[in-house]
What does this fold into?
Amino acid sequence: MRFHLPSLTISGREVLPLVEGGKGVAASSGLSSGAWAKAGGVGTFSAVNADRLDENGEYIPLVYHGNSRMARHEELIEYSIAGGISQAKIAHDVAGGNGRIHMNVLWEMAASERVLRGVFEGARGLIHGVTCGAGMPFKLAPLAAEYGAYYYPIISSARAFRALWLRSYRKVPEWLGGVVYEDPWLAGGHNGLSNSEDPLQPEPPYARVALLRKTMNEFGLKQVPIVMAGGVWALREWSDWIDNPELGPIAFQFGTRPLLTQESPIPERWKQRLLTLKEGDIALNRFSPTGFYSSAVRNSFLRELEQRAQHEVSFVDHPAGDLETPFVFGVRNRTVYVTAHDAERIAEWEREGFTKALTTPDSTLIFVTPERAQQIRKDQLDCMGCLSQCKFSNWACNARGTTGHKADPRSFCIQLTLQNIVHGGDPDQNLMFSGHAGYRFATDPLYANGHIPTVAELIEVICRGD
It folds into this structure.
C-alpha cells in the first residue's frame, strides 16, 4: 500500500518530494543521482572533488605535479571542474529526462565559486539546481540564477536563513527553489552547530523547522519547499509533517540510505561495514580541519584523533605559576615548562611509545608515535589546498596561501582520507562520514541477509512509508 506522499514542484517540475543528499568527496555520483531522478525524485551528485572520467567511463586519478601548494591547488580546481562536468553528463543520461538533477557543493571548499561556474559552463542545461552548505553562501543566488538553475541553501537554523535572505537572496527570489534544513545533531558529514548549541543536547527538529517556516512566511515564501535533512529514514515516522499547515510544503532528503544501493559509487567493503553499524557507533566530533562539527563512524581513525586530544598538555616558554617543570623536546632541544602532573603524564606516554612532541597553535603539545608524527608532517607538506582555509596545514585561498596561524597537528588532511575511503581504502582507517541513523541498516528488513537494493527499489520502499 502506497504511503500518502503528495508530489511537489521542485526546480520547475512536479516530482516526488524525495531528495538524494549530495555526499562529497565522490560518494554521490552521476550514476546514483541519475538513478534517483529516473525513479521520479531529485538526484544530487557531489561536485566536491568529483571523480573525473574518460570517454569510456573509466576513472582518471588525480596525480599532482606541482611542487607548491598553490600549484597543486590549481590542479585540484581544474580536476574538480572536469569531474563535476563528467558526473553531470552521466546523471543527465541515466535520468532519461525524468526527475531533477542537482549538484551539491561546500561553500568552504577551495574556490567554490570557480568550481560552480566551471561545472555550470561545461554542463549547460543539464543541472536544474544546486545545494550548498558548510558556510554562508551569500553569492550562491546570483551565480545560480546566471545559469538558470535553482538554488537551495543548506542551513541549520532560521537565524542563518534570515541572514542569507536579507543580505543576498531577497534580490534573486525567483530562483530560490527550496531551503534545506540540515539537522545539526542528526545529519552526516559536516554539521552547522553554532557556538550557542550543545552537541550533547540535541533539539527536536520540528520546532526548529516550524520557526524556519515562520521566518520564510514573513518574506513571502509560503510556497517555497523546506527540505528536511538529517535522521530521515522511514517516512511513516514523519507522517505528521506531511500536509501540515504549520510547516507548509515539505520534501525529505535521504543522505545515508542511498549509500547502500547498487548504484552507489562507494566500494563494497564500505557498504559491508555499513551493514554492521550499531547504535552509538556514530558520533559528533570537532577534529575536521574546517573547524565545523562533523558526524562520523567512531572507528580506528577517529579513535586515534581522540587519543591525540588525550595526549595534550599546556606549556609556557618561561616558568609561570604551576608551569615550572622543564621539558626538553625536538631536534633543537627546546626547553619549555609544564606542570609537575603533566610531566608525569608525559613520562608515561613516552614509555608507551608516544615519544614525539608536536606543538599546536594553542601553546600546547600533543604526543604521538614517531611514525604518526612523520605521517602528519608529510600530509601537511603535501597539502593541495582543498579548502578555503585549513586548520591542519594552515592553507588558505588568499594571495599568501596561508591562514597566518600555525598548522594544527590535532587535525588531519580531509581530502586525503575521503579520497582513500571512496576509492577502496580501509573504512576502519579512514574518515567514514555517516548520519546518526546509519545503525538502522543492520535491523531494516530491506537489507536482510546482506541485500543491497537498487535505487528504484529503495525509492519504492520509501514511498510505502518504510
Observations:
- The chain has two domains: 8-266+436-463, 300-422.
- Residues 300-422 form one domain.
- The first strand starts at residue 8 and ends at 10.
- Residues 69-95 form the longest helix (27 residues).
